Amino acid sequence: MPYSRVIGNGKAGTREEGQIKLALELAYIDPHIRGVLLSGHRGTGKSTVVRAFARMMYNELPITLPINATEDRVVGGLDIDQLMQNTLDKQKGLLQLADNKLLYVDEINLLDDHIVNIILDVTSTGILDIQREHMNEPPVKVSFVLIGTMNPEEGGLRPQLLDRFGLMADIDTDDAQRSEVLWAVLQHDTALFEQEQGDKGIFIEEGYRQDRQKRKSLMQAQDRLHKVKVSKEIVQDCVTLTKAFDIEGYRGDYILALAARALAAHDGVREVTQTHLKQMAPLALVHRMIQAAHSDRFKWTKEHDNEVEKCLPDA
Amino acid sequence: MTTKLKSASLMPEFIVDLSNPLVRSLACAAIQQGLHSILIHDIEPAPLHAVAELLAKMLKIVTGREVPCVTLGSIENEDDLWGNLILRRGSDGWEFGWHSKLLPGEGEDSHPRLVLIPDLANISLAAARACVVLVDSELTDLQRYGRSRCIRTGNIWWLAACATNKTNTVSPHLLDRFSMRLHGRMITAQDRSQEILARFSRPFPAIPVDQTGLSADISKTLSRATQYWPEIEQEALSQISEYEDVSSTRRGLALIRFAIAAARLDRARHVSAKHVDIAADIIHLKLPASAMWDTKTDDVDERKPSEPPVSDNTSNIQDSNASNPIPDSGVTDPAERQASPPSSTTESPPFSQSVGSYPEDDKPKRREIDSLRLPIRRYRANKANRGPIIGTEHATNLHDPAWVPTIVEAKFQYIKRLKKPHETKGRLVISRSNLRTYRRFPVPEQMLVLVLDYTSVRKRDWQSALLPHLRWAYVERAGMCLIRVGAADDASEELRAKRILGRSLLVPRISAALEAEAGRATPLAHGLDLALHTLRHSLQHGRSAAGHARLVVMTDGRGNVPLKSSQLNRMVQWPVNRSGINDSLATARKIRALNNVQAVLLNPNQRQYTELPWELKDALNAIYQEMKEQ
After folding, report:
1. Cα radius of gyration rounded to whole Å, chain B
2. Judging by beta carbons within 10 Å of its beta carbon (0-12, 13-18, 19+), is residue B199 exposed, middle or buried?
3. A251 is catalytic
């Protein structure tokens, strides 16, 4: 389904509306944000929106690390087919293929511990070192935006892996939105059928047209990112917020500042304000709170909103 | 593996006709994208195989191809399901090939296949993980042993069975992937006693009758439906929100797609709320008060599921073997049928509404009854190739081969060809000495999780009570997890329990941490929460999942630290009252819902609040043991 036809999740008219899409767009605008984790129950369109976004921005499906992946495909190895023809040919692993692109891990909380450790190593150091099965390669620098989806009912993520994700969006579809989602999917089904019969699927074609416009605006936002001003006061506010929420480590305030700047660029504004911080706080901080390390499902609540209001009185 | 029909004498017959709700449902699944996953509750194996054959025949009409059937059981591993390189004997000697049970081969994405799961509650962990990713998906990625493919999986149909009373032992994530929910009762929706009496009055058939032959009419209806698409009315969408059972987007989508498919079969111009109600009734959703069961419209082909189809051909009720002198049981003259409708009336839905489509919503989650029952392969005999690879070694068989090291070992191809040019004929030469297998990190298949509340065992001989469990862990080479609750030397974080993991009982830090003095606080809820996460991770996540775990909780149940306080490492509530205890009980109930966990409660039998250990024992569904005084 075209990205613009995917209904943004979250309660309509609330802050949560459109959070998934916003998180993905900001991670594209500023890759230093590093990654986005989409958490939600089954059937909430997590995988659909990620694939649609990758098609829109990169003209291809995302590099996907599935739960069936073996180590040779994650890290890289020798091409077995070529080896059988007596030719030594290397086969790049998924981590290398995803360099400067998206790496998409579906059902990330079901992934093998061993594979998770490999991802953690590479995302924390930015270096991929291939020393396995007769391969001795010089270290390679890799950088990708890690997108993960998970159903929290199947268990949480290790804190070290949670911290790898710059932003986290918790997905919840409310009743009002459900009809919208159903209608969109059915229109897409109808358009697919029309295309199979040789007709134009207007719903799909119009969707792709809107995607092209969206892509252009995101690329423009990426170009103006470094012209957005981040004042000392805003940086201090980031530090204040992370202290107020007992955030562990040093990434929380930095990511919050990056995300707020990306949002300002997204909105076409020249300077980051407290309003941007207020909007980004849930995405940047929810998975860094102490409860997140000790619980499967951790939600941003009204108490958290009140705490943000106290720290950002001018927002 | 293909399935075959059993003899007619064992086969429960059902009418192969679109008036039969089961047949109609299968036809909808065959023609409609998004309905390719079917779960049937409470169906016996024999009729399940007949249903699979019927669906395969319908798919052949719709797709124009033969549809192979693959069966999943309880022993498949990841290599079987997703694929692996195998050596097989070809026409010209041995050859390498790729084999996958579930996925289509290269260039075969458009070829349909049917996956049959006879018992969804009893599939292997690898199969469950594969199903969560593949069922009801359009695309999947394969990244395995050098193979890298993006595969279209929209041409795989899934047919599974699960007893209603076992649905709460299956992951809801997996259950939710099945878009169409049917019931085994639909097979014998007709008056079964009349059918049996009728069979007694007929001679035994000399030749087994093909019960699942498709009539020309069904074939024609299916073919026409694939070329037809009705208009969808907004009221149809609105009607979905009337159904309480349809609590998620996925279920709503399944219901509306079912209604669309039914309208396509009938060549109705519009999909209306009535179609939604008919579809909902077929799958046993509880009808709302607004159900338009009796409303007639001019637009819709007004057949209720139990009535015969209206068509130009009035003989379409007979199946393709109607020329057989012994009529199929249950097939009656259309006029006779209309005169005496089945037990369902035209005024009310034909099926009992006592069991809904989604039994997992009503039943409390619980462990399997036989959680200690070993799977088909015993643990020690199972050469599990699950641990991470730590090296390679010489292989004496083809189990878990390391292909790249093997082929590299055979690198002196050129020299070997020079020596025996006629024998090798330019092929890769691998000799026995070249074979390599992976050396894997040993993965414990059992786990012992100890939650020890040191504040509750004053003047108690807890070491003796714990000894049998430690002995079991030693004998089974079980992985260890020790969770200390209320230990004095964890005073810097006295509001939190502390978890220590070890590969086995012999790991020194485990034995060193077993003994401790009692502290001031008892964060029992946090200790149980850590146990829950540990158990879930070790039993369900990744390839190296343990098969079985034993949880031993030593406590008097008097947890005085609420869970949130432990998580934040500061008291957030004062006075605490019973919140610590309630949090402990709530977490214990979540542990109870895990499969393959045996829980044991060791009660120090203190004099105060003697009911609390019993409450915890019930919440965990644990075996109860008492400690003696020192």
Report:
1. 30
2. middle
3. yes
Phi/psi at B196 (5° precision): -65, -45
Contact A78, A214 (CB under 8 A): no
The Cα angle at residue B39 between residues B270 and B363, in degrees rounded to 5: 110
- Distance in Å, alpha carbon of B378 to nearest chain A alpha carbon: 23
Torsion-angle region of A102 (φ positive above 0: left; ψ -120 to 50: alpha; else: beta)? beta
Q: For residue A131, give every residue at least 6 positions away whose Cβ sits within 8 Å of its Cβ, in sequence order, or none.
A: A137
Q: How many CB atoms lie within 10 A of CB B604?
A: 23
Contacting residues of B for A43, CB less than 8 Å apart: 176, 248-251, 253
φ and ψ at residue A211, rounded to 5 degrees: -60, -40
Which residue, chain included where needed, has tokens 């878009």?
Answer: B179
Tell me how close the Cα of B252 comes to any Cα of chain A, in angstroms.
7
pTM over 0.80: no
Query: Looking at beta carbons, which pairs linking B496-500 to residues 24 or more positions away fall under 8 Å?
Result: B496/B523, B496/B526, B496/B566, B496/B569, B497/B451, B497/B523, B497/B524, B497/B526, B497/B527, B497/B530, B497/B566, B499/B530, B499/B534
Cα–Cα distance, B351 to A194 (Å, whole number): 36
Under 8 Å CB-to-CB from B343, ≥6 apart: which residues? B191, B350
Q: Which amino acid, B46?
A: A
Active-site annotation holder among A251, A261, A288, A297: A251
Looking at chain A, how many residues does it have? 315
Q: Which residues of B touch A157 (CB under 8 A)?
A: none
B181 sits in which H/E element: strand B180-183
- Please measure the distance between the N-terminal and C-terminal CA atoms of chain B and give it in whole angstroms: 62
3-state secondary structure string, B49-105? HHHHHHHHHHHHHHHCCCCCEEECCCCCCHHHHHCEEEEEEECCEEEEEEECCCCCC
pLDDT, tens digit (0-9, with 9 covering 90-100), for B375-414: 333 334 344 456 777 777 888 777 788 888 888 777 656 5
Q: Do B533 and A155 touch (CB under 8 A)?
A: yes
Q: Looking at this predicted complex, what is its ipTM?
A: 0.74
Please report the residues numbered 82 through 111 in chain B whose beta carbons come closer than 8 angstroms to any beta carbon of chain A.
Answer: 82, 85, 96
Q: B271 near B258, Cβ under 8 Å?
A: no
Phi, psi of B317 (to 5 degrees): -75, -30
pLDDT tens-digit series, residues B327-348: 333 333 333 333 333 333 333 3
Residue A76's identity, in one-letter code, is: G
Helix (H, G, I), strand (E, B) or coil at A186: helix
Looking at chain A, which runs of residues are DSSP E strands? Answer: 35-40, 63-65, 76-78, 90-92, 102-105, 127-128, 131-132, 135-136, 140-141, 145-150, 167-171
Beta bridge partners of A132: A135
Structure tokens given for B279: 């579809």
What span, in angstroms and rounded, lies between the C-alpha atoms of A228 and B590? Answer: 48
The set of residues, in sequence order, having a beta carbon less than 8 Å from that of B69 and lying 6+ positions away, is B1, B2, B3, B52, B53, B56, B113, B114, B115, B116
Residues 262-301 of B with CB under 8 A from A: none
Q: What is the pLDDT of residues A41-91, one digit of tens each?
A: 777 788 889 999 999 998 988 999 998 888 889 988 888 777 777 777 788
Contacts of B540 in chain A (CB under 8 A): 110, 154-155
Question: How many whole angstroms separate alpha carbon B410 and alpha carbon B413?
Answer: 6
Q: Describe the crossing of helices A232-244 and A274-285 by its angle, rounded to 10 degrees.
A: 40
Which of B404, B428, B437, B533 should we substitute to test contact with A (largest number of A Cβ atoms within 10 Å)?
B404
